[in-house]
Amino acid sequence: MELQQLRYVLAVAEHRNFTRAAEQCFVAQSALSHQVKALEKELGVTLFARTSRRVDVTAAGEAFLPAAQACLDAAARAASDAAGAVGQIRGPLRIGAIPTVTALDLPAVLGRFRAAHPQVQISLAVGASEQMQDDLEAGRLDVALLGLAAQTPPYTAHRVLDRHRLTAIVSTAHRLAGRRRVRLADLVDEPFVDFPVGSSGRAQSELAFAAAGLVRTVAFEATTADLMLGLVEHNLAVAMLAPGVVPAAAPVVRIAVTDGPERLEYLAWNEFNPSPAARAFLDLAH
Questions:
Q1: Claim to verify: residue 220 and residue 277 sit in the same structural domain
Q2: Where is the HTH lysR-type domain (predicted)?
Q3: What integer pLDDT is reported at residue 83 of this predicted model?
Q4: How far apart are CA 286 and CA 246, in angstroms?
Q5: Angle separating helix axes 59-85 and 3-15, nearest 10 degrees
Q6: Average per-residue pLDDT in the chain?
């Protein structure tokens, strides 16, 4: 069994297509197919059910994939550790980030990191804080930028990057548009747009209204600040967002909320034997 065979199997499983898997691996399809068949023969099982139009992962294949990925990850880590022992930093760096990062200029940080460590293979995925914490624990991410309510700190290793109170966002035609400050009680009867139920972005406001003994109505759910701001601009809803998320030129009004929810941004990581690349990123990102 060779590492390249494992890479081929994982690519086929990802694409459910031998041609696209071969393109991803920069190899001829015939060569990739031959190696997959050779591995199946060695294992004595069929990893993929194939027809001329369809490729599916078999039950044996589903059982094989997690360990195959773990083998590749271990091989990459072994190479990274060996290079680190002689002063080089290389290997993968898997970063997760919420879509509303404001505590640091992530592209600028990644640019500095790439300049300092050009042999590190950086990957970046955007997601929800809860899922990224699980990915850190499982070793699927090395570091992550999280945004959480002040009452729910991460359960992974972390440090605080920023702390701020959310701002009420209303349209220029809204009845409160002329106010400089409001309280949650002033907003409770308004239709809200917020992040989906169960997300950390939603929890910040839910906890604050619950603590104030108030019940609001969330009429719209969205996963991006851009969509939220569009709904607010057309006076369909009000929102509560981190100040840095709202562009200065956005045609909306920002109002301070004196008893509004607090949001913390964290840099979190898997503290179990972090890779040299992860440690270097943690040193740079502050």
A1: no
A2: 1-58
A3: 62
A4: 22
A5: 130
A6: 91
Q: Are residues 56 and 104 in the same domain?
A: no
CATH of the domain at 203: 3.40.190.10
- If asked whether residues 252 and 177 sit together in one domain, one would say yes
Name the DSSP letter for residue 196. P
pLDDT of 216 > 80? The answer is yes
Helix, coil or strand: residue 281: helix
Q: Are 61 and 48 in contact (CB under 8 A)?
A: yes
Is 160 part of a structural domain of the chain? Answer: no
Which domain, by its residues, includes 110? 89-150+272-284
Q: Based on the domain organization, do 203 and 278 belong to the same domain?
A: no
Integer Cα distance of 37 and 109 in angstroms: 43
Same-domain status, 119 and 256: no
Tell the residue number behind the tokens 């990102």, with chain if given: 285
Per residue in 77-118, pLDDT tens? 777 677 665 567 888 899 999 988 889 999 999 999 999 999
Where does residue 189 rank: exposed (0-12), middle (13-18), buried (19+ CB within 10 A)? Answer: exposed
Locate 260 and state its tokens.
Answer: 């509004």
Q: What percent of the chain has pLDDT over 90?
A: 65
Residue 216: phi and psi, rounded to 5, are -105, 175
Question: 43 and 185 share a domain?
Answer: no
Quote the DSSP letter at residue 238.
Answer: B
Please state the domain count of the chain.
3
pLDDT at 192 over 90: yes
Evaluate if pTM is beyond 0.85: no
CATH of the domain at 28: 1.10.10.10
Q: How confident is the model at residue 60 (pLDDT cuts 50, 70, 90)?
A: very high
